[in-house]
Each structure stands twice: as structure tokens, then as C-alpha cells.
Write a structure and sequence with these properties.
By secondary structure, the protein is of the alpha/beta class. It is 28% helix and 27% strand. The strands form two sheets. Strands 5-4-3-6-7-8-9 form a seven-stranded mixed beta sheet. Strands 1-2 form a two-stranded antiparallel ribbon. The mean pLDDT is 96.
Length: 215
């Protein structure tokens, strides 16, 4: 299978066709080999229009959602970004192509080694990953210019707002366990937070002290 052709088709038919125009995001999606972030048996489906299982009841997000969330951050290349939910590492790689540095948190230890191996293979050296409760953020490295959360929460954890710098943008799904709305929250210069609903979505639950509890 020619993965480069599959990647280009994915970008043209699933992302550009749905209105994503940020050229830096499109270039990153064209460059990062998504098939390396899924199990060998699923690699032929890596560029299909949907999410895929990665184990532990977790998923790699649909390509369009990855592109949409990334574009919504409006990254310019100078930002320090906090990512909640490393998972397969695919979204991490996209962010690493577009930001100065990415700080990624994952609660499932088995994912971290696998993601790190692929990220190292791609020579993406501007990434820090730790195993921790993602709902608490990464206070020691805050504030962040951008925060991207790849799991749905009943509300926005206070820690995220505290760790978002003035002018910074937070993208995350908020709602119940079955359906969420993707929110964009901007930290205003007067200290307030402007909230905007972007689209309906469905993510795995954000588990932790300030999110959902383990069933």
C-alpha cells in the first residue's frame, strides 16, 4: 500500500473538503505517517474517515477531528502546548510539527513507551511526555499558550484555566460520556474566559480527579 497516496487522499477528501484551510495543519497531516501509530493489522485503515481502537478502550481520533482541533488552536510555531491524552502519539506528533514544544500527559503507562518509540523514530525531539492524572495539567511547566484535551469531561477542570496563559487557547470536549460539544476557550486580557461551542463530538471519557471517575 502506498501510504503517501493514502495520506494525500485523506487530506484532500476528509479535511480540505470539510473546510480546513490552515496550510501548516494540512502540511503536518500530509507529513506525519498515521499508519505507524496503529497496530500492524489496522494499518491499511489508518487513513480512513474514522477513529480506530488502540487498546485499553481508547482510540486514535478521526483524522478530520485531529485537524479541526489543531486548526482551532491557531498555532504559529512559537507556542508551548499542553496535550492531555497522549494515546497513540499521533496528535502529539501533529502538534510537535506546529509548536515550539509539546508537553503531553497520559494516564495509561503502556501507551507511553509505544508512542515514544514512534515519535523518536520520526525524530520529533520537542516533546515531553509523563504518566500522570491529566485532569491536573502540568503545573510545573505552566503557563501554556495552548491546551488540547483529547478526552471528554463533564466540565472544564479548573487546573486547565489556571495553567492557560493570557491570550492562550484551550480546546476540549465537554458533556456527558456519550456526547460532547467541542469548546474553544480563550483567556482574555481582563482575566475572563471566552467560551465558544465549535461542534458536536464523541470522545472517550477524561478520567481523573477533575474529570470522570473510573467505572
Amino acid at each position: 500500500m502506498d501510504y503517501s497516496i493514502a495520506r494525500r487522499r485523506m487530506v484532500e477528501q476528509q479535511i480540505v473538503a470539510r473546510g480546513i484551510t490552515d496550510q501548516r495543519v494540512l502540511d503536518a497531516m500530509l507529513t506525519v505517517p498515521r499508519h505507524l501509530f496503529v497496530e500492524a493489522g489496522l494499518q491499511s485503515h489508518a487513513y480512513s474517515d474514522g477513529s480506530l481502537p488502540i487498546g485499553e478502550k481508547q482510540t486514535i481520533s478521526q483524522p478530520y477531528i485531529v485537524a479541526f482541533m489543531t486548526a482551532a488552536l491557531g498555532l504559529q510555531g512559537t507556542e508551548r502546548v499542553l496535550e492531555i491524552g497522549t494515546g497513540s502519539g499521533y496528535q502529539t506528533a501533529i502538534l510537535a510539527k506546529l509548536a515550539k514544544r509539546v508537553y503531553s500527559i497520559e494516564r495509561i503507562g503502556a501507551f507511553v513507551g509505544r508512542a515514544r518509540k514512534v515519535l523518536d523514530q520520526l525524530q520529533l525531539s520537542n516533546i515531553n511526555i509523563k504518566i500522570a492524572d491529566g485532569t491536573m495539567g502540568w503545573r510545573q511547566q505552566s503557563p501554556f499558550a495552548a491546551i488540547l484535551v483529547a478526552a471528554g469531561s463533564p466540565d472544564v477542570p479548573a487546573e486547565y484555566l489556571d495553567q492557560l496563559e493570557v491570550g492562550g487557547t484551550l480546546i476540549m470536549p465537554v458533556g456527558d460520556k456519550e456526547q460532547q460539544n467541542l469548546l474553544r476557550i480563550v483567556h482574555q486580557s481582563d482575566g475572563s474566559f471566552k467560551r465558544e461551542q465549535l461542534l458536536g463530538c464523541r470522545f472517550v471519557p477524561l478520567i481523573g480527579e477533575q474529570g470522570w471517575q473510573v467505572d
